[in-house]
Amino acid sequence: MQQEHVLTPSKITAADFKAWFVCLSAGLFFFYDFIQLNMFNTLNPYVAQAFHLDAVGIGYLASTYMFATVCMLPFSGALLDRFPTRQVILVAMLICTFSTLLFSVAHSIWIAALARFICGASTAFCFLSCIVLSTRWFPSHKMAQITGAIVTMAMLGGALSQEPLAHLIEYVGWRHALQIDTLLGLVLFVMMYFSIENYPAGKKAPELNTEPVLDSYKQAFKNPQNMICGLYTSLMNLFIFVFGAAWGSSYLHHVYGLDFTVASRITTMLFFGTIVGSPLAGYLSDCLRKRRLPMILGAIVSFGLAFMLLLRPSLSTSELAAIFFIIGVTTSTQIISYPVIFETNSPKITGACEALAGVLIMSGGAIFQPIFGIMMQSHWEGNFRQVGENGLPIYSGGDYHFAYIILPVMLLLCIWLARHVKETNCKLVWKDTTSSNG
C-alpha cells in the first residue's frame, strides 16, 4: 500500500489561488449575512423604543429571522442542486441587502417583522451556497480547510455586528447605521459579481439535478450520516447559540458576579476562539486525512471544559476568558461535518443533504434558547423566589447554573454522535453509503 504523506505543505499554484479567491468572494455573503444575524443583540434597546415593544415582543420579532431560515433551508438546497450557484448567491445577496434597507425605514412592527423574515430567508442560502460552490473548486481532501476559512469570515461579521456597530449607532442613530450597512452590502455585491464563477475554466460544468425535489430529500434522509453530522454540528454550536447570542452575559453576571461589560467581553471570546479554531480544525483534518478522530477529540475536550464550568463556579475573569476561548476553538470541529456530508453523498444532491443538516443546525438554536429559559423558570419556581417591582421573576445564580446543565449534557451526546460518523479519509465514498458506518 502506498504510504500517505501528512502535514506536508504543497506549493500554491495559480489555480489554487483562483479557487480560494472565488470561494472566499462567495464567503463575503456569509460575512454580510452574519452581521444581520447577530446585530439584533446590539439593536434591541433602540428597536424596543422605536416600536414600543416589551421583552416578549422583542423576542417574537427576533425569532422571525431564525424561523424563516429553518423554513427556507429545504428550498435552498433544492434550488442550489438545480440552478447555477453564482446566480443563486447574487440574487440572495440582493434580497438580504434590500431587507436591511427595509428594516431601516420601517415604522410599523409588521413591516419590521417582514424585513427580518426576508433577511432570515436569505440566510438559508449564505453558507449552503458557499459549500456547494467550494465542491466545484476544491478536491475533497481540501474541503475542511475552505469550510473553516468561510466560517472564520462569518465570525468576523458577527464580531463587527457587536461593539463596532454600537459605536456607529451612537454617532448616526440606528436607522442611518442600517442604511450604511445597506451600502456595505451593495459594495460587497459588486465585488462578488465580478469575482464569483460557477466552476473552473476548462472543467466540465457540474451536472444539475433534474430529479423531483422530494426524490432528492428521500435520498438525503436515507443516508444516516446527514442526520448524524447535522445533529453533531447543532449541539457543538450550542455554546454560540445559547451563550454567544442570548444568555452568556447574564449567566456570567449572576453566577460569577461580573459586570455586564466584562461578561460580554468574555462571551466574545467564544467567537474569537471559533475564528482561530475553524481554519485550524479544517487544516488538521485535511492534512491528517481523518474526519472522525478530530470530531471525537473536539467533543471530548469541549465536554471537559464545559463540565469544569459546572463544577467550579469560583473561576477568575482570566480563567473564564481562557476557557471560553478554548471552547470556541474545540467546538470548531463541527465544521468537519460539512465535508463529511459532501463525501458521503452523490454530488447531485449535495444541496439537499447540506440543507437537511442545516435545518437540524438552525433548529438547535431555536429550540435550546427557550429551553435554557424554561429550565431557569422551573428552578426559580421550585425555590419560590422573589419577584421584582415589575412583577417579573428575580433569577439567582443558582437558577442560571441549573439551566447550564443542558450544555455539558449535549456535548456528551456529541461524543456519541462523533463515534458514529463514517470515516471517509477525505475521499468521495458516497457510492458506499449503504454499507455500515465506521
TrEMBL record:
Where is each Major facilitator superfamily (MFS) profile domain found?
19-422
Provide the alphabetized UniProt keywords: Cell membrane, Membrane, Transmembrane, Transmembrane helix
What kind of membrane protein is this, topologically? Multi-pass membrane protein
Transmembrane annotation, as ranges: 17-35, 55-76, 88-107, 113-134, 146-165, 177-196, 228-250, 262-284, 296-315, 321-341, 353-380, 400-418
Asked if the Swiss-Prot or TrEMBL record annotates the protein with the keyword Transmembrane, the reply is yes
Q: Main localization of the protein?
A: membrane
The UniProt entry, under Pfam families, shows: MFS_1
Q: Does the keyword Transmembrane helix apply?
A: yes
Cell compartments where the protein resides? Cell membrane
Among InterPro entries, the record links this protein to: MFS, MFS_dom, MFS_Efflux_Transporters, MFS_trans_sf
UniProt cross-references to Gene3D superfamilies, sorted A to Z: MFS general substrate transporter like domains
PANTHER family to which the protein is assigned, alphabetical: CHLORAMPHENICOL EFFLUX PUMP RV0191, PURINE EFFLUX PUMP PBUE
Q: What is this protein called?
A: MFS transporter
